[in-house]
Amino acid sequence: MADPKILETFPNPAPQRDYVIEHTHHEFTSLCPITGHPDFAHITVRYVADKICVELKSLKLYFHAFRNEGIFFEAVTNKICDDLGTVLKPRQLTIIADWKARGGFTSVITAEWKPAARKGRSAR
């Protein structure tokens, strides 16, 4: 399974500003845990960095680590969200996994990560 220790970071060059960083990986592959057939997706990582940003080569290697893993769409999307959220501690993070059609279905799974300080906070 993909290890979040693969992910490398660098200092946010503009931590005083909220700006959106978006990376899309068009060749994401994992395996269906039932059939063993390959599943293909476009994975979009959209985040507002706080103190650090993710380095792209390490993100690519992290994504490639899923190639031989049997994992459901929902599980892989949420694992990516949890791992990146834990490593980056961003102000905002959304993972969008757009899975290619197989058997007449396409699936889009979206997961959001929220900083721990904001979890459970009620609206006023």
Lay out the secondary structure:
Layout: E1 9-11, E2 20-31, E3 38-48, E4 52-54, H1 56-64, H2 73-88, E5 92-102, E6 105-113
Antiparallel strand pairs: 1-4, 2-3, 3-5, 5-6
What is the structure about, briefly put?
This protein has 124 residues and is of the alpha+beta class. The protein has helices at 56-64, 73-88; strands at residues 9-11, 20-31, 38-48, 52-54, 92-102, 105-113.
Low-confidence stretches: none
The share of residues in extended strands comes to: 35-45%
Assembly state:
single chain
Tell me roughly what share of residues is in helical segments. Answer: 10-25%
Task: Describe the model.
This protein is of the alpha+beta class. Helix content is 20%, strand content 40%. A hairpin with a 2-residue loop joins strand 5 (92-102) and strand 6. The longest helix is centred in the middle third of the chain and has 16 residues, at 73-88. The mean pLDDT is 92.
Which properties best describe this structure?
124 residues, 6 strands, 4-stranded antiparallel sheet, 2 helices, alpha+beta, two-stranded antiparallel sheet
